[in-house]
């Protein structure tokens, strides 16, 4: 089974997640091996996430890493959340009444 291609926003969020988790691990002074062992996941998974090769890691993997690194999921989500995109503009959408 092949995976779907990620849209640019998903890739960007994955890169931001990788950066945030790597920064938190380094700030903790712990190795990837130590964090992986404590979180109950493989060091290969930690490295894959940190290098951005896993743009959309499993929720429980992220939760385990966040817990080990002392980051709340709310804080982690806020640090990787992209601003909402507004692809539609009222003037370009005839179903939106812009008259006063």
From TrEMBL:
Pfam families: HTH_31
Polar residues: compositionally biased ranges: 20-30
Chain positions covered by the region annotation Disordered: 1-33
PROSITE patterns assigned: HTH_CROC1
GO MF term set: DNA binding
Domain HTH cro/C1-type: 21-76
Ranges of biased composition (kind: Basic and acidic residues): 1-12
Protein name as catalogued: Transcriptional regulator
């Amino acid at each position: 089974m092949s995976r779907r291609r990620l849209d640019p926003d998903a890739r960007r969020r994955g890169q931001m997640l990788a950066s945030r988790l790597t920064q938190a691990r380094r700030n903790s002074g712990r190795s990837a091996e130590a964090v992986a062992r404590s979180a109950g996941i493989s060091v290969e998974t930690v490295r894959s996430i940190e290098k951005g090769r896993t743009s959309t890691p499993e929720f429980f993997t992220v939760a385990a890493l966040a817990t080990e690194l002392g980051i709340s999921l709310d804080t982690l989500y806020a640090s990787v959340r992209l601003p909402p995109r507004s692809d539609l503009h009222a003037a370009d959408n005839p179903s939106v009444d812009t008259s006063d």
